[in-house]
Amino acid sequence: MAIVVEQLTYSGGYSAVYEKSQNIMPFAAIASSSMTSTTIQSISDILADIQNSTDEIRFLSISSPPPLVQFGFHVAKLPLALHTLNDDDDSNENLLQSLKSLNDHLKRIQAAIGPQLSDESLDDFARSLGRCIGLVAQTWEHIPEDARSRIGILHREMMKGVFIEGEIVEVEEEPVVREEVLDLESLVAKVKTAEVGDDLLIKWLTELEVLIGDGLVETEVQESVGLAVSALVGRLGGVKEEERVKILLLLNMLATKNDLFKEIMADFEVLSIIVRSLTKDVNESREALELLLNLSEITRIRQKIGRVQGCIVMLVILSKEEDPHISSPAKKLLCALSSDTQNVLLMSEAGYFGPIVDYLKQGSDMIKIVMATSLSRMNLSDQMQGILGQEGSIEPLVNMFISGKLEAKISSLGALKNLSTLPENTLILINCGIVTPLLQLLFSVTSVFVTLREPAAAILACISQSQLILNVKDIAQQILSLINLSKPAIQCHLLHALSSIASHSRASKVRYKMNNKGVLQLIEPFLVDDNDDIRRAALDLLYTLSKDLTRGMRTLIGESHLSVLVGMVNTSTSEEEKATAAGILCNLPTADKKITGILMRLNLLPILILTFPLCFKVSPTDANKLLLENIVGITVRFTVPWDSKSQRVFVDLGVIHLLVKVLSIGSPIAQSRAATSLAQLSQNSLSLSKSKQPRWMCVSSSSEAFCQVHMNKCTVKSTFCLVKASSISPLVQILRGKEREADEAVLIALSTLMQDDMWENGSNTIDKASGIEAIIGILEVGNPNAQEKALWMLERIFRTESYREKYGKNSLVYLIRLAQKGDHVSKPLVSKILAHLEFLQVQSADI
Question: What is the pTM of this model?
Answer without folding.
Answer: 0.69
